[in-house]
Amino acid sequence: MSNKVSHKASNKASHKTLGFQEASTYLLEQAKSLGVDIEILSSQGRELTIDTFQGELSQITQATQGGIGLRVISGGKTGYASTEEVNQEALDWILKEAKENADLQTTTDGFIPEGKALGQKDLIGEGLSAPVDEKAQKAIDFEAAVRKHPNLKQVMISRYTESEVQGALASSKGASGGYRNGYTVLGSSFIMEKGDSLKQSFGLDWDKEFHSLDANKTAMEATEKMARLLGAQPLTTGKYTAYFEPKAFGSLLSVLMYMFSGKTLMEGKSRLADKIGSKIAASNITLIDDPTLERGIATRPFDSEGTASQKTILIENGIMKSFLHNSQTAKATGQENTGHASRGYSSTLGVSPTNIYVEAGDGVKLE
After folding, report:
1. What does pTM read for this prediction?
2. How confident is the model at residue 19 (pLDDT cuts 50, 70, 90)?
3. Of 356, 364, 228, which is closest to residue 284 (Cα–Cα)?
4. For residue 359, how many other CB atoms are within 10 A of its CB?
5. CA distance 283 to 319
6. Separation of alpha carbons 59 and 281, rounded Å
7. DSSP assignment of 305-367, as one string?
8. I need a labelling partner for 361 at 20 to 30 A (CA). Which of 54, 145, 199, 206 fits?
9. What is the pLDDT of residue 4?
10. Residues paired with residue 197 on neighbouring β-strands, in sequence order
11. CA 174 → CA 39, 120, 171, 193, 238, distances in Å?
């Protein structure tokens, strides 16, 4: 049976919308009276999308979304509930539902980790503060730059996107804090042609600040990368040295990260279960996940349980050093909590990487 449920309370004028601080204070008081532990997670997001077509704006969309969610521990049992309406009626409802969902469970190993005051962090500042018309012009300039390539046949999509999220956390174990983060993207899907060779691709670039995105550079890199494939022929069967571009290697890492998850380990599904301390890669490979990375897209001061962020070395000189853990997976496996708890306000507790990268080396050939 699922232990998660969401609710949209009725929107009555008499129902006062509460801020996170007021809502969390109320929920903590109510949880104390019920004798349960709770973790309160809030997320408020804003997204702007600007589409262009043939040098003109075709669509501008702005949207906001968010809500507040609970993880309740009742007698060691865990339950979840969430709402998009933050008023007293909705808060009473999700607390009741989360406790009832917890009481329906059979496992009794749930807990909320000890926490502390974490402060408020702003990780983007004025990075997304340019006027909308300036952002629209960058989107138009980007499409125009893509169309300059001599082999360009058709632009399917050309888009500017930015996303901003304000998150906050509080728990009955003392955790409290919040942070604001965001990013901006230029992306385009297009078709290129050279003789009988026809290729379709999607190119994009990300950054933390609007003014750091270069429309011409992004367009040139995307089109030149695709142009290299025009007229490509199959290789003769043989043994070759392979070179991975950063984005291609990133895609490969995203597949492999499943094996480094503490949740996968806890469930007995990781092929790396007994590999800590063993050689699993070439000696010049050091793989790191760093949620504190400056200007990293997924940088954050703490995880969704309030555990402070820290750089975690997964592989050092080819030797496996660690999995990625939240408090639950760390306790279940007897390993250290690395601060990689992941949970949206409407989802359950999981484990997720942040800024994964391979440490720069001396360029020697891999073993």
Report:
1. 0.89
2. very high
3. 364
4. 13
5. 8
6. 47
7. T-PBP--EEEEETTEE---B--HHHHHHHT----S-EE--TTS--EE---SEEEPP---PPP-
8. 206
9. 60
10. 194
11. 10, 15, 6, 60, 60
**C-alpha distance from residue 57 to each of 21, 49, 54, 219, 224 (Å):** 40, 11, 8, 18, 25
12 SS3 class: coil
CA distance linking residue 298 with residue 342, whole number of Å: 12
CB distance 177 to 185 below 8 Å: no
Burial class (CB in 10 A: 0-12, 13-18, 19+), 125: exposed
Share of the chain above pLDDT 70, in %: 95
Burial 271-305 (b: 16+ CB within 10 A, else e): ebeeeeeeebbeebbbbbbbbebeebeebbbbbbb
> Cα-Cα-Cα-Cα dihedral of 332, 333, 339, 345, to 10°?
-40
Contacts with 19 (C-beta within 8 Å, 6 or more apart), sequence order: none
Q: Which amino acid, residue 18?
A: L
Which of 13-22, 46-55, 281-290 is least confident? 13-22
Q: Are residues 65 and 45 in contact, defined by beta-carbon separation less than 8 angstroms?
A: yes
Tell me the DSSP string of 67-131.
EEEEEEEETTEEEEEEESS-SHHHHHHHHHHHHHHHHT-------PPP--EEEEEESSTTTT-S-
Count of beta carbons in the 10 Å neighbourhood of residue 186: 28
**What's at 257, amino acid-wise?**
M
Output the CA–CA distances (angstroms, integers) from residue 129 to 115, 126, 183, 258, in the order listed. 33, 5, 12, 36
Look-up of token digits 């929920």 = 27
Please name the amino acid found at residue 208. Answer: K
What distance in Å separates the CA atoms of residue 4 and residue 83, rounded to the nearest whole number?
11
Q: What is the mean pLDDT of residues 141-167?
A: 96
246: which 2 tokens? Answer: 């950063």
Burial class (CB in 10 A: 0-12, 13-18, 19+), 362: exposed
CB 347 within 8 A of CB 326: no
Q: What is the DSSP letter of 304?
A: T
